[in-house]
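tool=predict chain=A
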Amino acid sequence: MQSFKRGAIISLLAVSTGVGATQPPKTVDDLWKVIQEQQKQIDGLNAKLKKQSTSTGDGKNTDIQEVSRKADILSDEVEKLRTALVIPEDKELKSAYGLGPAASKVYQVDKGLSIGGYGEASYQNIIGDKGTNEDTADFLRAVLYVGYKFTDSIIFNSEIELEHASTDEDGSVSVEFATLDFLWDPMANARAGLVLVPSGFINLMHEPLFFFGNQRPEVEKRIIPSTWRENGVGLFGELLPGLTYTTYGVNGLDAKGFKSSGIRGGRQKGSKALAEDIAWIGRVDYVPPSHPQLLVGASAYLGNSGQNQEFSGSKVDAFTQLYEAHVQWKYRGWKFRALGAWGHIDDADVLSADLGETIGESNFGWYTELGYNILPLILPDSPQYLAPFFRFEQLDPIASAPSGFSDDPNLDRKIYQFGFQYKPIDNVVIKADYRNFTAKKGSVSDEFNLGFGYIF
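tool=predict ok
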């Protein structure tokens, strides 16, 4: 049976691309030719056996049944080839254009549909909650990447996310990004749609296998409001070997959503976004060809956030700036990251008066982390991954308060985090970590997190 199936596949390939060919059909037309040719062969063999059975009268129905059985097997193989044209077999997961590996699958297919995804779930135990019922078990995200490669140069890519397993309570279904790429030249390509703002590590690559800990770094949630996406259009490419850039014009933030805790509430997420004010975001990264384990980069966001709205009876620009720089280094099982971000908001006094809480004129945050894969020390030949890690963060969304408004020292925090990350296979991760919070004034509960994640 298996030898026949192998022969059938070889036969199909030979018909589609010539005798001795080893590549599958690449288009629907090629596949249709394979199907037609194979059907002719099956019909001819059936007719021959029926004629032989009639002329001899020996009733060799078992031969006809065998041909029918083989025809069914061939039909199954043809259907697999048909499916392969639409949803190709998984290839090696690797990043493209700064996106996460699962989000990059569409760039690897020859043509047609691409499907990928990721998910993550965690249990969080609040230390010392004293019966306040703050411990939670949450399926944080279930994400589907859907892409379509129309041609080699026109590609659609998207991320659809279901948060907290429901649309009730705080759950939601959202489009995280949806873009059309026009790949003109390695140095200059265009992208339009709901784009991921290219700031920091997490906003572009937020699949759970590629950052330590169950929770994303607080700096990349409060200072850089990941996941951050806006409607926009721009360019990206590689100027020199290892030197890449991304630049977009996007709708600006909405200052009505700013809070003492940061600008996160100002994200418009592509939903009927106010576009009276337009912002610019630019990013550069460099990976030295001689040291591919090293990455250094920076980004800048500049744009008004007032959106032609009134704040305390007047209209203000609320010019918003956010700058960040980052470095990553991988070496023989070691993984190191560091990131720093600083932001400034004009007219913070007017915003604070209107919103009823202090909006920081300036804000900042930084973190550094280090992990090491210890498994080769224990099991030298194991392909699995086990890395203890440590992360330190410091952030203050009200680094300077506007005149006449008070600071909130409880938001000036340091976070010490340690844990481990275990990957039994490349597509699955199990995580455990402990986070200790300290505030300049007041207290913040510590937490223990346990969870898992996957990509495909």
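Residues 1-22 have pLDDT under 50 and may be disordered. Residues 2-86 form one domain.
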